[in-house]
Amino acid sequence: MMGSTSAPNEVDASTAEPMASPMVEIRGLSKLFQGRRHEVLALDNVDLDIGRGEFVCVVGPSGCGKTTLLNILGGLETATRGTLRIAPPTGGRPQVSIVFQEQGVFPWMSVLDNAAFGLAARGVGRADRQRVAHEMLAKMGLAHFERAYPRELSGGMRQRVNLARAFANDPEMLLMDEPFASLDEQTKLLLQEELLHVWEGTRKTVLFITHSLEEAVRLADRVVVMTARPGRIKAVVPISLERPRDVLEMPSNPEYLRLHAQVWEHLREEVLAARGEDMGGTPQ
Ligand SMILES: Nc1ncnc2c1ncn2[C@@H]1O[C@H](COP(=O)(O)OP(=O)(O)O)[C@@H](O)[C@H]1O
Ligand SMILES: [Mg+2]
Question: Does the pTM exceed 0.85?
Fold first, then answer.
């Protein structure tokens, strides 16, 4: 399989069939930032559907507009052009919960209160929210740290608290912006495994941004590769690895290695293009 140049299961972004009833439908989305000295076209004509229950990872070089895309989906930023449709939430759920790379935990709150925060904000009663938060913390291996405060935790544990809060909040969709980027390799692997484990139990729709293609291939149902700025969708690669997945075994899985090589082929050019710009290319 390795070394094969044809990519039979790859989908050309421009000809991909639209989904019947996607959770998210993005059409012709562009974002132009008005900087002080010049404008920056962060996103250029992005089309993407995300299916209900799908785990989509977005990779692309630094500065290509990944965070901008996530912020537009999360309602933190507005698009300059194009349309975004997200299926309306059901059953009183919030539409999205966002997990960022850092921040997110409140230092003055216990781990349990942090994990229950989204539910408290929605007016869920104390007993119920503590029960749900407790359940999620236990799944994230934090059952014994509920009374602890964030300063007593490692970076990896704090990110577990963030994940527990996001899942406890029970949103229609989870948006994650490089949540593991600042963690060491081993911690990252463990958190990826725990994230998949919790996700298997809920099958929430996830949009997960990362600059790590290893992470993207381990986690995703589909990997979306973005171009160097202005961010466009360069390719969408379906990840056919069976679930549940064992991320610790991935490096020896030939199918994983094949998909990794396939995604890298797309990403490589864009990383080089982004580097060219850093080294003196014309700013957009
Ligand atoms: N609020 C803003 N004002 C001006 N430019 C911005 C703003 N936010 C992001 N940008 C620019 O938009 C581009 C994409 O940024 P971002 O979405 O953060 O990229 P990524 O997350 O892929 O690294 C970058 O060139 C960045 O400098
Ligand atoms: Mg970013």
Answer: yes
